Amino acid sequence: MKNVTEYLYPSDLSQALILYAEHEESAYIAGGTHLAAESRNNTKRLIDITRLGLNEIIDGNGEVQVGATATITEMYSSPEISKVGNGVLKKACQLIADTPLRNAITLGGNISRLYTWVGLPVVLLTLDAEVEIMNLHGERKRVPAADHFANGGVKDGDLILKVRFPVRNAWFHSYEKFSLTTADYTWLTIAFAAEVKDGKITDARLAVSRITKATRLKAVENALIGQEIANIDVESLLTVLESSVDIVKDFRVSKEYRRQLLGVLFKRMIQKLQEETK
Ligand SMILES: Cc1cc2nc3c(=O)[nH]c(=O)nc-3n(C[C@H](O)[C@H](O)[C@H](O)COP(=O)(O)OP(=O)(O)OC[C@H]3O[C@@H](n4cnc5c(N)ncnc54)[C@H](O)[C@@H]3O)c2cc1C
Questions:
Q1: For residue 46, how far is its CA from the centre of ligand 1 (angstroms)?
Q2: How are beta strands 45-48 and 6-8 bridged, if at all?
Q3: Where are the domains of the chain?
Q4: What pLDDT is recorded for position 23?
């Protein structure tokens, strides 16, 4: 941030877009926790979006809408967030960093780019959330989370306005983050959701991050569908799981260790599913 010469508070959304468009080296800033830590950053103009009323959390019509500048603490403390996916979104918020960071980090900042270590993308994926974005022409669009992350997050100048989370409480949901301490970088983040009817899995979502960019593992999801809860073929699922992820390098921990970890956390989630849907 050493090149920053202007720090601006737009009065409304359209002014934010104008301020962004008129300067080549602009960036939106929300919690600032990533921007402040970026050493190679040429940004000259910062446009603070935290006073635009984009932090509302609204429950209605089977979904909870969360404004992009809601902080992780605001989300964690919100009764509406507890309703999403039987509390899975709240759990994901709880496991992000530490209290001072959770007070600053925003939903929009957490999902704007493909930072593999961040906690919320996998839950957006397993909940089939939608990201609402406004482009520099003021046009709004709703993008399924899977497309948002597959496309690399926001494009230059796009502003995330909110995320729509389906409540989806009839499903089983689970979320795990493995790290040495809560504030340490995660080694693996995984979220799992399953719809169970008459003792069988009828639909499933499985998403991982850190070992790769946040992504759904569709081959495993397909292999889960149709399995009887009492007789889930965990060993064959583990074979599919292993071949569906190309684990990226991490200087702190080997690929083999993380492959093992993936299997262990996945097995635990399956056991929990079996216990909770008996
Ligand atoms: C020591 C440390 C530990 C951390 N640990 C974790 C962790 O365990 N789990 C975790 O999930 N995160 C963690 N984080 C936070 C994470 O790394 C990011 O810094 C954070 O998610 C960014 O959110 P922010 O609101 O601070 O975004 P900012 O830093 O303000 O912005 C980040 C980027 O997003 C863009 N942006 C922000 N809001 C919007 C919007 N509404 N629309 C479009 N673009 C936008 C900005 O222009 C910028 O490019 C940690 C951070 C630190 C410093």
A1: 15
A2: parallel
A3: 6-48, 57-166, 172-276
A4: 92
